[in-house]
């Protein structure tokens, strides 16, 4: 089982890596960010939207925070405006860190049941499994964005967890 220190480290890693990718994406034109590149969600902009949507959905399940305003099918268009997407990403990363700072071991061990549209049934798992999934989902889609950025010639900086600034 994970512990609170893992949750805090991964929340901070999430912010660090989002700053890394958004900084690289900011150097692109809007057309380049929106160019379809064959990734699951299509473009850099769409994938970053879906990633924020996923974070919002999981935090809604885990904390009761507001649900995303659209469903998964429209998650890639959550924030059509780049500036608004960046601002919400920054705000939400801080919300994840604030939550992580307060996670208790007893909460991580407790189970949660939620309805999954993906499998169309109730799913029951310990919180620690779902929190691990939250961070794994982030890493998965950031990897896709990193690849797309590299295809444009942009080079995001380090992604290695041991090199995260304290």
What does this structure look like?
60% of the residues lie in helices and 7% in strands. The chain is built from 6 helices and 2 strands. The protein is globular. The two termini are 24 Å apart.
Key terms for this structure?
mainly alpha, 7% strand, 6 helices, 2 strands, 60% helix, 166 residues, two-stranded antiparallel sheet, Four Helix Bundle (Hemerythrin (Met), subunit A)
How are the elements arranged and paired?
Layout (H helix, E strand, L loop, with lengths): L3 H23 L3 H5 L9 H20 L18 H20 L3 H5 L1 E6 L4 E6 H26 L14
Helix pairs in contact: 1-4, 1-6, 3-4, 3-6
User: Count of DSSP E strands?
Assistant: 2
Find the CATH superfamily.
Answer: dinb family like domain
Helix content: 55-70%
Poorly predicted sequence stretches spanning 5 or more consecutive residues: none
* Structural category: mainly alpha
For the biggest sheet, the summary is: 2 strands, antiparallel
- State the CATH architecture: Up-down Bundle
Overall pLDDT metric = 96
Give the overall silhouette. Answer: globular
Percentage of β-strand residues: 5-15%
- In terms of quaternary structure, the protein is single chain
How many helical stretches? 6
The SSE string, one letter per element, is HHHHHEEH
CATH topology: Four Helix Bundle (Hemerythrin (Met), subunit A)
Indicate how many domains the architecture comprises.
1
- The CATH class, by name, is Mainly Alpha
Q: Between the first and last Cα atoms, what is the distance in angstroms? A: 24 Å
Strand order of the largest sheet: 1-2
User: What integer value in Å does the Rg equal?
Assistant: 16 Å
């Amino acid at each position: 089982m994970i512990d609170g220190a893992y949750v805090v480290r991964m929340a901070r890693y999430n912010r660090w890596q989002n700053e890394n990718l958004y900084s690289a994406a900011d150097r692109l034109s809007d057309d380049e960010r929106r160019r379809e590149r064959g990734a699951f969600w299509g473009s850099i902009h769409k994938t970053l939207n879906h990633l924020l949507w996923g974070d919002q959905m999981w935090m809604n399940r885990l904390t009761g925070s507001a649900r995303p305003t659209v469903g998964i099918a429209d998650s890639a268009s959550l924030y059509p405006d780049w500036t608004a997407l960046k601002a919400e990403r920054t705000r939400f990363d801080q919300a994840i860190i604030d939550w992580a700072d307060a996670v208790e071991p007893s909460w991580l061990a407790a189970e949660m049941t939620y309805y999954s549209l993906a499998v169309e049934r109730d799913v029951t798992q310990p919180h620690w499994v779902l929190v691990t999934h939250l961070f794994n989902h982030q890493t998965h889609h950031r990897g896709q964005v990193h690849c797309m950025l590299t295809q444009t010639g942009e080079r995001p900086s380090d992604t290695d967890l041991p090199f995260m600034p304290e």
